[in-house]
Amino acid sequence: xxxxxxxxxxxxxxxxxxxxxxxxxxxxxxxxxxxxxxxxxxxxxxxxxxxxxxxxxxxxxxxxxxxxxxxxxxxxxxxxxxxxxxxxxxxxxxxxxxxxxxxxxxxxxxxxxxxxxxxxxxxxxxxxxxxxxxxxxxxxxxxxxxxxxxxxxxxxxxxxxxxxxxxxxxxxxxxxxxxxxxxxxxxxxxxxxxxxxxxxxxxxxxxxxxxxxxxxxxxxxxxxxxxxxxxxxxxxxxxxxxxxxxxxxxxxxxxxxxxxxxxxxxxxxxxxxxxxxxxxxxxxxxxxxxxxxxxxxxxxxxxxxxxxxxxxxxxxxxxxxxxxxxxxxxxxxxxxxxxxxxxxxxxxxxxxxxxxxxxxxxxxxxxxxxxxxxxxxxxxxxxxxxxxxxxxxxxxxxxxxxxxxxxxxxxxxxxxxxxxxxxxxxxxxxxxxxxxxxxxxxx
Length: 443
Known about the structure:
Blueprint: H1 7-12, H2 16-32, E1 47-53, H3 58-74, E2 78-84, H4 88-100, E3 107-110, H5 115-120, H6 128-133, E4 149-150, E5 153-154, E6 156-163, E7 165-168, H7 170-175, H8 185-195, E8 208-212, H9 218-230, H10 252-266, E9 270-272, H11 282-286, E10 289-294, H12 299-305, E11 310-312, E12 322-331, H13 336-350, H14 352-362, H15 375-383, H16 385-393, E13 397-398, H17 406-421, H18 427-442
Parallel strand pairs: 1-2, 1-3, 8-9, 8-10, 12-13
Antiparallel strand pairs: 3-12, 4-5, 6-12, 7-10, 7-11
């Protein structure tokens, strides 16, 4: 088992309570045996590996499991156990505890922003050598390589990609007399007002124009960032790969993006999600709201319900923008045998077959360029216009930073967003406080 040489430095940077928690969780992981496999007593040639993932909604998890089962059936010498370990915000303590306790999974499904932190902890294997020898490298969408690289090396492979758009209910637009989709922030705000209605005459709002995520977790930040970018803002400028280069206090794009969300709330046009539950789509499916920020990962769910729905790009301010999302696969330092087996599974994930089936079953956009031209996928895209919206919008996409400390930046941004949404601070005040917290950490 790989011994992490930086774990002592890691402990020096966290307080005593968290240190105790990490040790406790790590001990539970190790002594419960839930992640450590011994060779199969019946067949010592079988290499057992684990995949930690947080795929949602549950039907998408079922699609992944079917694909994992197919791999296991066609690779009798490698058996992959796919384990759902919670939403990404919930996974972080488990991941850090597993790394510090030298009991990591073989594969981790997670957004690219975690890369720098895991590299600094010396937890990952770089994939340059293995990927350069693989014919599948040439089939990866070249625009995704930015999310794989840190300090000149490749640390992950893409699992699937997506971006954020606005899902809406055409029938509710028609009932409100709206005939054109909004293209600018001003138009969006007016449409949200028109869609906020008392439909039964009891003088209470039965239908809101817009659903926004309440909370300070990564999903809230991920769906808000396009508004900062659309208003001309950036988290960091140039090629800087350090958290100390982030400027929130003087970020006019961030101020404008926060103010726009606050304006929608002040207008009375917004239904807020439950705390940290902004990814749920029940309110849109039931017609309690008419619009929601989400991505192609929900296409399968919407299709299964049979409700009318459509998608349009996030309206622009100074420019068009969206968040490039999706998750990558990270390979941890374990044993040479398990690392080779994990990369074999990673190649399967990169393949046209896997990417086509995943896209058809979940709505995720394929990262394999051959899969995007697969006849089955082309037929699927033709029948589902929303797919074209996300594919076309990808060219306006921005990726979140992958350098160490992004989790602290996201946390500070999330606190600012929540503060503004709840009316506790103005955008300028909230971002100034967030910058002060970041300066204490990184400067």
